Amino acid sequence: PDGVSSWSRSQAVQALSDTCTYFCNTSYQQATIIPTVSDEWLMMPHPEAYYEYKRMRISEDARAVAYAAGYGDLWAYDHIVYLFPPTRGMGSRGYTVNREIFLHDALYILPHEMGHSYGWLKHSHRWIPCDITNPVDSCGYYLEYGDCFDQMGSGNSLTQDFNVFEKNLMGWLDPNQIIQVVANAIYRIHRYDNSAAGAFTPL
Questions:
Q1: pLDDT (tens digit, 9 = 90+) per residue, 70-85?
Q2: Of 126, 112, 198, nearest to 162 (Cα)?
Q3: How much is the pLDDT for 190?
Q4: Confidence of residue 197 (pLDDT cuts 50, 70, 90)
Q5: Distance CA 197, CA 28 (A)
Q6: Per-residue pLDDT tens digits for 153-185
Q7: Average pLDDT estimate for 53-57
Q8: DSSP for 168-195?
Q9: Cα separation of 44 and 1, whole Å?
Q10: DSSP 55-97
């Protein structure tokens, strides 16, 4: 009751609408999201300090408050998104278990967290070689979120796509589109970051 969000309901509705369009396009029209947004901000029963470092408390109380407000059992939905004001010890997270998404006063990261919730996806890293002139140097380290071109990396916006490996994990590619390279040859790789690319062989 003492928290104030930076976002209005109309902004939340727009973010969900944009995310729905994004997933429809990136999945080659195979993923359809029909969102339901509460008519107003729902008041939690405890002050902000009660929820610090306690994500599951947000889940439990938010579901109870939503049920009392007439939204039914939230477990009936495929995904549940909680948008809450700044709370110490809390960050945005997406979970495959229970398909819950926690947005820590951040709407822009919704597609990224949906990737976690929707398809068991992990973060996209970047390999930093010890010898920067040799990108395949075995000496080096992985930079967390290092792939700035990937939705699951640091490219958390509607302009970045999921990569082919991720799309395959989510079941958006037909097995016939996947070529297992077992010999030296010349292969053609088609672009995949286009809504019409699903008909081609991306790798």
A1: 999 999 999 999 999 8
A2: 112
A3: 77
A4: low
A5: 7
A6: 987 788 889 988 899 889 888 888 888 889 999
A7: 92
A8: HHTT-S-GGG-----S---------SST
A9: 6
A10: HHHHHHHHHHHHIIIII--GGGSS-EEEEE---TT---EE-SG
pLDDT > 70? residue 24: yes
Please tell me the distance from the alpha carbon of residue 94 to that of residue 46, in angstroms, as a whole number: 23
Indicate the residue type of 44: M
Can you tell me whether residue 49 is helix, strand or coil?
A: helix
Contact 81, 33 (CB under 8 A): no
Strand order in the sheet with 100-104: 80-84, 100-104, 93-94
Specify the amino acid at residue 95. Y
Q: Are 96 and 114 in contact (CB under 8 A)?
A: no
